[in-house]
Amino acid sequence: MSVEKSVEVIHLTKKFGDFTAVNDVNFEIPKGEIFGLLGPNGAGKTTTIRMLCGILTPTSGEARVMGFDVASQSEEVKPRIGYMSQKFSLYNDLTVYENLDFYANLYSVPREKFAPRMRELIEMAGLRGHEKQLTASLSGAWRQRLALACAIVHEPPMLFLDEPTAGVDPVSRREFWDMIYNLAGQGVSVLATTHYMDEAEFCNIIGMMYRSRLIALDDPDALKEKMRGMLFEIDCREPGRAEEILKDLPFTHDVALHGVLLHVLVSAEKEKRGLEKALQSNGIAVKRIERVLPSLEDVFVSLVEDEDRPQMRDEIE
Amino acid sequence: MGQGFRRMATIVRKEWLHIIRDPRTLGLVIFMPVMMLVLLGYAVANDVEDIPLAVADLSHTDASRALVEKFTASGFYMVTHTAQSEAEILEMLDAGTVKAGIYIPEDFGRRISTGGSGTVQFYIDGSNPTIAQTAQLAAETVSQATSQEILVQRLERGGAGLTINLPIDTRIRYLYNPNLRKMNFMIPGLVAVILQIQTLLLTAFAIVREREQGTLEQLIVTPVRSWELILGKILPFVLVAFLNVAMTVGVGAFLFGVEVVGSLTLLAALSLIFLLGSLGLGVLISTISQTQMQAMYMSSFIMMPSFLLAGLLYPRDNMPWVAYYAGYLMPVTYFLEIVRGIMLKGVGLAALWVWVWPMAVFSIVVFFASVFMFHKRL
User: Fold this and answer.
1) How far, in Å, CA of A196 to CA of A199, rounded?
2) Do B223 and A75 touch (CB under 8 A)?
3) Which of B4, B8, B40, B335 could link B274 by a cystine bridge, Cβ 3.0 to 4.6 Å?
């Protein structure tokens, strides 16, 4: 059976009592794509992923994974997905090999494929020679790779990763995403949640979640282009004081420090001169000012502000 | 089915690895019940005998010496101190050096030999009711028997060679536990209660630990089914529990001399039914506990009443009606009767049936309820 859409989410909602954790979310993931679900902690990313894996039952709406309904056909969904949770759920008192062996048997990996598959996974995770090591003694990055190996032991066509790189060093994060790319290249669809904005650049499609709702859904470049206004990067002396001055200007939408550089969002190109003037009149020398393409972080911050503005008005009223 | 069995066997193997990887816990799991049996066995089941007795015999006659002799011969008393006055006996009781004292006044021998009534003052330390009751009973029995003897002697002496027989001669024979040893009552009960504690705690912990570690969530995502997971998790503990039964019964026999009179096979089979319910309770606790701490508290809610109400320490017949009927709500109550029946009376299934069927119903209901609840909570 060929399925064009690996995941299809329609008006998905989850309530815990009075609290709505996921509010009317819609998206789909085509086969072989990497979908990044971005957002701050508590935005509803994990709840969404847990509904898709059949751990939680949706309150309303529908979710189909590999063509099967997650609520009513979970027995069909389970063998077709791999899931890696935030905690890297491995058994610490079992060895690397025993953990893999355990999941391989639970997923009924055929006997004739068993040994080669185990070798392949240990090779992929770079754990050769450590098969007999207790999982408790592994470093964060190794545990992460072992958890991934366990999640894909049965070669699932759909992979769910919940904050897969939390607590892992930057180099290992890079290596991890290389592995994910490889899998996607083999036709595996991936849904990953993260709050590292730089990681989102690795994804083909991005969904931004904020306060239980999906506030943006597109590919990374389209999201950046869609951002209203223009972003200027300013290199100047006293960036801290400069930030305060620029924030008070009537035509700046957003001012944020990125290291020693200032990112200023304005509505049009012509405001560039205004920025320069404001700084110079306050005695701050501008070394460089130029228009930059927004990062996903800029996009997210801008979207969140758009989102909060009407709400703040509601609260005042 | 083939795959289901493979998944269950995989869980069993993993659970077994957890058990053997943790030798300290393994040691506790295996030896704790035996240690508990030995400790509780000695602590609770000590029969009252050789109560230390102080004697103040101011009479110094054959009659007074004979009376003291009767007290020591009963086995309940041992003369550890002699005193010269009532005050001295009271001092010893205050200090706790003796638990009882007997004061025989100077005129005791004279009054007996002249056909009168000799008064004896007996003191008992009432601070421990168990010892006090035994001491009182023994003191009354000994003095009555001695009185009877003296009475009979007087009549025979006066009645010109005729033999006197007491009008009623009651002969009592104790069945099942001829020496009335408390140990025989306690050991089978301890076997039942230990089994309940072991299975309840171990199962609840084994499941809640996975919830705490987050591995339960990982298991839910796999194709493993609830009953495969539950059976896989509890089977190793069934084995452990059986080892526990064998060891406690063995220690009961070799250390405390409480041998199993009835069928060991029947004991094993009925233990299995009991285990099913007890393990099910463990699973139920695990479904409503988020942490091992919660599971611990929840378990003690079940364990405390089973110690008190099931009739382990005190016979249920003497309990107030609330406690008596509350006992019927606990499967360990039925199992206790069954274990005592098999171990002490050596009775078979027919005699035990009144206890077996409610326990079986309970076990089956609880077990399937636990699988259902577990499934719902996944």
Assistant:
1) 5
2) yes
3) B335
